[in-house]
Each structure stands twice: as C-alpha cells, then as structure tokens.
Design a protein that fits this description.
Elements lengths: L4 E6 L14 E7 L2 E8 L7 E4 L26 E5 L22 H15 L7 E6 L1 H12 L4 E5 L10 H11 L5 H7 L1 H4 L1 H8 L1 E2 L1 E7 L3 H15 L7 E2 L2 E6 L11 H13 L1
Parallel strand pairs: 1-2, 4-5, 4-6, 6-7, 7-9, 8-10, 9-11
Antiparallel strand pairs: 2-3, 3-5
Helix pairs in contact: 1-2, 2-6
Amino acid sequence: MEQYQKVIVPFEKLTETIIPLNEPIILSVEKNEVMFEFLLKRKEGKENMIIFGSGAYDSTKFTPPVFQRHSWMDHFEESVIYFNDPTLYLGKINIGWGFGNADRHYLKEISEILKIILELCHIQHKDVLFYGSSAGGFMSLLLAGFIKESKALVNNPQTMVHHYYTGHVNKLFTNAMPEFTRDDIIKQYPARLNVLEFYKTIKYVPEIYYLQNLACEHDMEKHLTPFFMGLKELNESYDYKRIQLNLYYDKERDHNPLDMDETVSYIQQFIHS
C-alpha cells in the first residue's frame, strides 16, 4: 500500500475532489467518524469502470484496508476501483460483508460514496461492472442494486450471509452488534444479510452474471439453490434485469474462485458483450 499516493477528504468535500488520471491513489473518505477507503485508478478516455470487492482475508498477515486483487489493476484498460469494508475495523473479523453496525449499513454508504466518485470520473452507471467472489460477490450483488443500471459479475458468492460458516458469521455478529443475539440480528436486518430480501426492499433486480463451481457443495446447497429458487417468488412488478448462470466443475478449487487469467477473460467478455 505504501506505493500509492494517499488522499484524505471529509465526505462533505468529496464533490470538490479532483481524481487524477492514470495515477493510482488511495482515497480515504471520512464520514461521520468512519473511514471509507478506496484504491482507484482512473484511465484517460475510458468510459467503463470495474469495481472490485474483497472476500475473507488473513488477519495474521494483513491489516485493513483490504484491496484484494489490486495487482490486477494493470491487466485492464478500464478504470478500476477497489473498496475496503470498514466493518473490518469493528474487531477481530476476517469477513464483514459490508454489514456495519446497529445504526449504519456501511455497504449502503459505500454505494453513496461510489456514486459521487463515478460522477467525478464522468462514468455512467450503465458502464459500471462490480466483480467479487465469496463475500466480495455478495457485496457486488447488493451494490449493483444500490447503483441501478450497473452490472455484477460474481464467482461462488454468498447470497445469504447467515448460511455461511458459523464461525465467520458469529465473529461478525459478536463484534458488530454485541448487544444482540444471532437470531435477533437475522430477524432485524434481513436486507443486509440476504440478497433476495434486499432486492425486495428496492423492488429491483440488477443484471447479473453468476459463475459457480458445481464441486462446492456448500455453495450449491446454501447459496445458489435458495437464491435461484427464490427468484421465481419475486413480485412480477419489480424492475427485473437479465441473470445468466455459468456452471463449471473444479473439485480442486472448491470454493476458491477461478484464477486471474480466467477471471479477467470473463470480465472483458461481460464488459464488451
């Protein structure tokens, strides 16, 4: 992270910020005593933006901000943004899913900041692609709903946070909302934890390209199947974009995403399709 220029601005001054061309920066936006951090590189003359979300990280080796895949930056001609989840600062948490705390949904606030950054970069929402795997995929599915007309490309995502492994979920709940029980949190915040419940609240389903490894039984049973079965129960009046499912089988990778070359290829295909 030391190689990148750092810019710190209060949220109230963000609209006045100048985003440099062809130079990666870490933009830290202070909003109501929470720091929202973005690694971004704005490419000159490029109308597309790829926004990357991060999954679990190893807290014994790294500390936030977490910008997974930032080394991929130069593999794209398009402008790119990586965002950190401030939920990770709430305690010993390896995954935050953008949850926030009892009063604030950090992922919603990330979307509000991203809208301003996109405007500063003269990028239209229809030219934005969110990419992520696992928890990064979950956040991409929600962000594509917050920022309408954008698209999401996800690989082995969670679609229901509380269906993920208990240890990770309980760490989040204990640190983010220690005064609540697990059952209370699931009951009180369904739209923060379940992609379909979120789409119901906004009455909108974004365009999604969903990559899933059939060999990962946990993903298939706990996330993909309930998501697609639940889609048919959504109200027909919702603004409903195209969803495309691409299944593959790789027993060795299991829940791990496709490698860089395959992922970059899918991202380029989706952008230019």
